[in-house]
Amino acid sequence: MTITDASLIRVSSFWGAIFVFLVLELLAPYRKSSVSKAKRWINNITLTVFNSVVLELVFAGAVVTTAAYVTTRHLGVLNLVELPQWAKIFVTVAFMDFMLYIWHLLNHEVPLLWRFHRVHHSDLNMDVSTATRFHIGELSISAIIKISLVFLLGASLVGVLIFESVLVLFAQFHHSSLRVPKWFESVFWMLFVPPSMHRIHHSVILKERDTNYGTIFSTWDRWLGTLLTDVDQSRIRIGIGAYQQPDQLYFHHLLAMPITRPVK
Ligand SMILES: [Zn+2]
Predict the structure, then answer these.
(1) How far is the centre of ligand 1, averaged over its atoms, from the C-alpha of 258 (Å)?
(2) pLDDT tens digits, 127-174
(3) Least enclosed by CB within 10 Å: which of 37, 94, 149, 262?
């Protein structure tokens, strides 16, 4: 597989899944929107396209290039050990997801990082478009961290591609405003992050927001004591207490948010 193939798969699976989740959300919504879905979509998709263009210009496939580089030169931890290919891919997905858990926790605990991460949490409703509502500053720092981790781990191109695809799919699923059967959620919750678990993370209440940091596996939250399950889902209000007006949350407000007053 070439790097162009990898980028093509990434881009098409990303937009394809956004479309599928949007249709499903419209057919079986979890609950009614409290603010205009169309206006939120304009902001979130503008931000997503803007981020994709900037990241492409600055990092231009740097993650996949690093993966291809460490594989051909046999660099990194995974290239020092004898393991079947499937096991290396599993280690890549689990390790990268755990690092993302730590990074997400730091985004809530370190005031400077929260300045960027609050752009994601300021969405007043949650749906599949929330999954990519991030500030370019947060994405740039996390891209540098991700490249360093791929280098240290010696992750293969296939391993990175599978991790990125699974990550995007899980993030889109658990942000979606989709009515999911209760039995499915409770089984899924044992190992993975379902929408109800991540909805608690988007609550305006601080002690609910600073929990459930996982993206793919729910195990990290379970093992490290940050899992919160016992919340009445019907009364969760999404967003940040200080940002409750939709007309203060347009694209240009989101871009400037990290350099405006600090809010919890
Ligand atoms: Zn968060």
Answers:
(1) 15
(2) 999 999 999 999 999 999 999 999 999 998 889 889 988 999 999 999
(3) 262
Q: Is 224 helix (H, G, I), strand (E, B) or coil?
A: helix
* Radius of gyration (C-alpha) of the chain in whole angstroms: 18
Q: What's the rounded Cα separation, in Å, for the pair 96 and 129?
A: 23
Q: How far is CA 1 from CA 120, 157, 158, 261, in A?
A: 33, 8, 8, 47
Contacts of 179 (CB under 8 A, 6+ apart): 28, 29, 30
* Distance separating alpha carbons of residues 48 and 73, to the nearest angstrom: 34
What spacing in Å lies between the alpha carbon of 123 and ligand 1's midpoint?
12
Dist. CA 12–CA 59, nearest whole Å: 19
CB atoms within 10 A of CB 210: 15
- Measure the CA dihedral 87/90/96/100, to 10°: -150
The enclosing H or E element of 26 equals helix 3-27
The per-residue b/e assignment along 74-91, b for 16 or more CB within 10 angstroms, e otherwise, is: ebbebeeeeeeeeebbeb
pLDDT tier at 59 (50, 70, 90 boundaries)?
A: confident
Local structure of 238: helix, strand or coil: strand
Specify the amino acid at residue 60: A
Distance from the alpha carbon of residue 81 to the mean position of ligand 1, in angstroms: 35
Q: Count CA within 13 A, CB hemisphere, residue 154.
A: 15
Structure tokens at 196: 């109800």
Rounded average pLDDT over 184-207: 94
Q: What's the CA-to-centroid distance between 3 and ligand 1, angstroms?
A: 31
Ligand 1 centre to CA of 96 (Å) is 17
